[in-house]
Design brief:
Elements lengths: L1 E8 L2 E8 L2 E5 L1 E5 L11 H6 L5 E4 H6 L8 H8 L2 H5 L5 E4 L2 H6 L4 E4 L2 E5 L6 E4 L1 H11 L3 E3 L11 H26 L10 E6 L5 H12 L5 E4 L8 H11 L9 E3 L5 H9 L4 E3 L2 H7 L2 E4 L2 E4 L19 H5 L2 H9 L3 H27 L3 H12 L4
Parallel strand pairs: 4-5, 4-14, 5-6, 6-10, 10-11, 11-12, 12-13, 13-14
Antiparallel strand pairs: 1-2, 2-3, 7-8, 8-9, 15-16
Length: 383
Amino acid sequence: MKYKILATEGRAKRAHMETVHGSIETPVFMNVGTVAAIKGAVSTDDLKEIGTQVELSNTYHLHVRPGDRERSGDELIRAFGGLHRFMHWDRPILTDSGGFQVFSLAGLRKIREEGVTFHSHIDGRKIFMGPEESITIQSNLGSTIAMAFDECPPSLAEWSYIEKSVARTTRWLRRCKEKIAELNGREDTVNREQLLFGINQGGILEDVRIAHADEISAMDCDGYAVGGLAVGESAEEMYRILDAVVPHLPKEKPTYLMGVGTPVNILEGVERGVDFFDCVYPSRNGRHGHVYTNQGKLNLFNRKYELDSRPIEEGCGCPACRSYSRAYIRHLLKAGEMLGMRLCVLHNLYFYNTMMYEIRESIEQGRFAEYKKKKMEGMEAKA
């Protein structure tokens, strides 16, 4: 991996990153394809058309399916030649570690030092995943960037619990590093140049977060993520943690804010030095007829769009806006036609990807603060 900062404005940074699967221009929004597909019938060819640089898939979900009790999903994908070949995508892929499912499937799991025991949300069967298992699954998938296995503690958990959880996450990171080094050294590994990002945790406790950031920074990972945010705390608390933590992560390596977020969250994150973002909002909102514009968010189910001949946004170059009216897309949504959801998802992802391009350009030109102010003022308007 080569990561080079091309321009800065305050703490905001514009960088170029080279990987075995192609280059990444940051700041970047990773389009979320949890089970190797963007929800809303969006193909990998569509992703290229709308300017997607990085696709993100989920380790836990691709372990439980495809496949069955005889062969796990990741083993099936490995036999196919890896996730890139399986889903017909030749650009970078980041796989999360399954650590978030430790948080989100709290009713279906048990945590101990060795790892986590899950009950599959698909068929109830017992699954064990620790650092070695998570890295092995991600190695089978052959992703460009693998995430370390961690626990995402509830942001409002007791200090004593968070401190113990973070210490365990640090120990798990050491085991992840050892395992990925072993697997990358094997001749039959799908991607022998797989990168590993460590994850900072600590809830909304600045002292725990900072101490953890200092500790994992010394472990020389390929990049670093800030996890465990946007899970119940306020936006102001999230920004406070970023202000405290990001300066303690290596500036010369990529920084990733996991699971965030809204366009405003992203602008605030970029201002604080974050490179990578991901979130299900654009696809999830699109499937419910909620679309982003530079003049605020629209709900296309509203009756006022019944005879609206305009595109979702004037001047937008996405596949939906090039050809279809708000009225037609509303009709499709009301009729339950998949095409309506697909067009809304394509528009939203295009909006996010275009915003990231504009952010990169504004940092290069030394006008990010101006761009951010104008973008936020427009998006907070009532469309």
